[in-house]
């Protein structure tokens, strides 16, 4: 029988990497996101959400149920991602190869079926295809995020060996970072979260990559002060995204404000205008724009200062 759809285990594997926040949040590039990586940039997602009366994703306000999230995923995979794999892979594909490929292009885009790893697969070079997938396509913004590196390696392992790493029962936030008896080494994502929490005045204890009670308490405190987060103590995609945006906000305000001041000051000076006033005005405008874009983070700062907890 020819494999044309993603298995239940394959969908659970994908969910483990995408997460499943049931309240809309802003991702690292300010894109409203909900469920298993659903954004309005996808035509299939827009259609699936529209069937459920959702025409706009509003961070902290738009909500779906776990059942709706699973239904939407099925519809989106069937409309967009599964046909791309079927059309661009050998007819004798195995279920675990189908599942790994759907996970990869769900993250990379359907065009990834034209990339080198898929070319090797079509040529019958399975080991080479897995090795290439596992060692490439893992950068974002010039960096190699630990989660993305892990995802590519786990997709490659699934593609080659049928190992559905980390497939467990679903949790709303997805990809939970909790201490488990089987954990044998620190988690780099937990360590990253601990570093950001510490810099923002939340005390997670030792920055060691282990999800202990003190780190969980710090995560909950951070979530309670944030308008778009559910306070469940899980470092899922929504919480991690907000932590990263929070860490970058001050730097963005300073660098963009200073850069605009210098640029506008130079232009004003060349034109014989009162460059000081113009530079100051442009700086205020740019900083105001950045603050508007990061208003959820500013709200978190205010809530933390006031000791206010936010219910989402």
Automatic annotation (TrEMBL):
A molecular-function term among this protein's GO annotations: lysozyme activity
EC numbers on record: 3.2.1.17
Enzyme class: hydrolase
Record-annotated membrane-spanning stretches: 274-292
Domain Peptidoglycan binding-like: 188-243
Reactions performed catalytically: Hydrolysis of (1->4)-beta-linkages between N-acetylmuramic acid and N-acetyl-D-glucosamine residues in a peptidoglycan and between N-acetyl-D-glucosamine residues in chitodextrins
Keywords, ordered alphabetically: Antimicrobial, Bacteriolytic enzyme, Glycosidase, Host cytoplasm, Hydrolase, Membrane, Transmembrane, Transmembrane helix
GO biological process annotation, one example: killing of cells of another organism
Matching CDD domains: lyz_endolysin_autolysin
Pfam families: PG_binding_1, Phage_lysozyme
Region (Disordered): 164-186
Family: Belongs to the glycosyl hydrolase 24 family.
The protein's name: Lysozyme
Organism expressing this protein natively: Shinella fusca
Lineage: Bacteria, Pseudomonadati, Pseudomonadota, Alphaproteobacteria, Hyphomicrobiales
């Amino acid at each position: 029988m020819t494999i044309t759809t993603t298995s239940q285990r394959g969908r659970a594997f994908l969910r483990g990497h995408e997460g499943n926040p049931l309240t809309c949040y802003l991702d690292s590039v300010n894109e409203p996101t909900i469920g298993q990586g659903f954004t309005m940039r996808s035509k299939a997602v827009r259609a699936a959400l529209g069937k459920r009366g959702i025409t706009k994703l509003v961070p902290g306000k738009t909500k779906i149920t776990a059942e709706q999230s699973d239904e939407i995923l099925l519809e989106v995979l069937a409309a967009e991602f599964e046909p791309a794999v079927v059309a661009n892979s050998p007819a004798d594909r195995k279920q675990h190869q189908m599942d790994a490929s759907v996970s990869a292009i769900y993250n990379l885009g359907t065009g990834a079926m034209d990339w080198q790893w898929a070319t090797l697969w079509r040529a019958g070079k399975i080991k080479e295809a897995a090795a290439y997938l596992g060692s490439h396509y893992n950068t974002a913004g010039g960096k190699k995020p630990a989660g993305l590196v892990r995802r590519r390696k786990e997709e490659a392992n699934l593609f080659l060996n049928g190992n559905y790493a980390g497939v467990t029962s679903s949790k709303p936030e997805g990809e939970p970072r909790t201490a488990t008896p089987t954990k044998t080494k620190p988690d780099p994502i937990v360590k990253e979260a601990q570093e950001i929490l510490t810099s923002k005045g939340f005390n997670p204890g030792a920055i060691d990559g282990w999800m202990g009670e003190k780190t969980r308490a710090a995560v909950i405190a951070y979530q309670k002060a944030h308008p778009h987060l559910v306070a469940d103590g899980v470092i899922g995609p929504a919480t991690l995204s907000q932590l990263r945006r929070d860490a970058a906000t001050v730097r963005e305000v300073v660098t963009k404000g200073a850069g605009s001041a210098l640029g506008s000051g130079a232009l004003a000076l060349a034109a014989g205008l009162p460059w000081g006033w113009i530079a100051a005005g442009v700086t205020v405008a740019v900083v105001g724009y950045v603050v508007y874009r990061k208003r959820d983070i500013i709200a978190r700062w205010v809530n933390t200062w006031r000791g206010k907890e936010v219910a989402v």
